[in-house]
């Protein structure tokens, strides 16, 4: 079985001199592709550099809602234009996060909308981070600015509104990570069965969110096998079938040609 990690942060300092060791283990465990995700201007530059250094790593660029106050979207335009041959496959992670702050809502919304516009201009999909903000996220995507070239809800936490968005738009998808192995509410499993397999991909969000039984350790893409195993159990399909399907879905979503 082959694995595609649709969301990771390998430029995180926590890997530092262990990075090659960690990535080699991932490769030995059949991780074929990784998308390294940007969260700020500096972080996005580092992410592009990661993609330039490793053939199997691709990159997104974007401003995470927590950085909406400090970073400017026009810098992402320059970044994209400066890197014409880079492997930038999406704008992300972008969105809304009201978990720690309620004061920056307007700034977060503005930067979110500007980045959807950027993605539409560049004909790229978007990777969405939404936390404690599903209603506003829904309102923006439905009424203000549609992502025209695909959308992926990263670390998906289902709500009725977001599920409806995903169902209504062909190229809208969801990503599940290690947190599906944590204790979830009953409704989570009911939601799972409302999402067709063709709209599901997997991610680790490394170095965060390691699955059970590795909580408290530094996550890495090898743990995708645990996530696929759990997911196949929850939605009651053959693990190999699911693993192949989510791999193909990820290639298609990020528009990457398998070689
Ligand atoms: Zn992330």
What is the structure about, briefly put?
With 259 residues, this protein is α/β, with parallel strands linked by helices. The chain has helices at 19-28, 41-53, 74-82, 105-122, 134-144, 160-168, 186-192, 224-234, 239-254, and strands spanning 3-8, 31-36, 57-61, 88-97, 126-131, 151-153, 172-176, 200-202.
What does this structure look like?
- With 259 residues, this protein is an alpha/beta fold.
- It has a single domain (3-254), classed as TIM Barrel, CATH 3.20.20.140.
- The chain is built from nine helices and eight strands.
- It has helices spanning 19-28, 41-53, 74-82, 105-122, 134-144, 160-168, 186-192, 224-234, 239-254; strands spanning 3-8, 31-36, 57-61, 88-97, 126-131, 151-153, 172-176, 200-202.
- Strands 1-2-3-4-5-6-7-8 form an eight-stranded parallel β-sheet.
- Strand 7, helix 7 (186-192) and strand 8 form a beta-alpha-beta unit.
- The longest helix is centred in the middle third of the chain and has 18 residues, at 105-122.
- The two termini are 16 Å apart.
- The mean pLDDT is 95.
- Zinc ion binds next to loops.
Bound molecules: zinc ion
Could you name the ranges where pLDDT drops below 50 across 5 or more consecutive residues? none
- Calculate the mean pLDDT score and round it: 95
CATH superfamily: Metal-dependent hydrolases
CATH architecture assignment:
Alpha-Beta Barrel
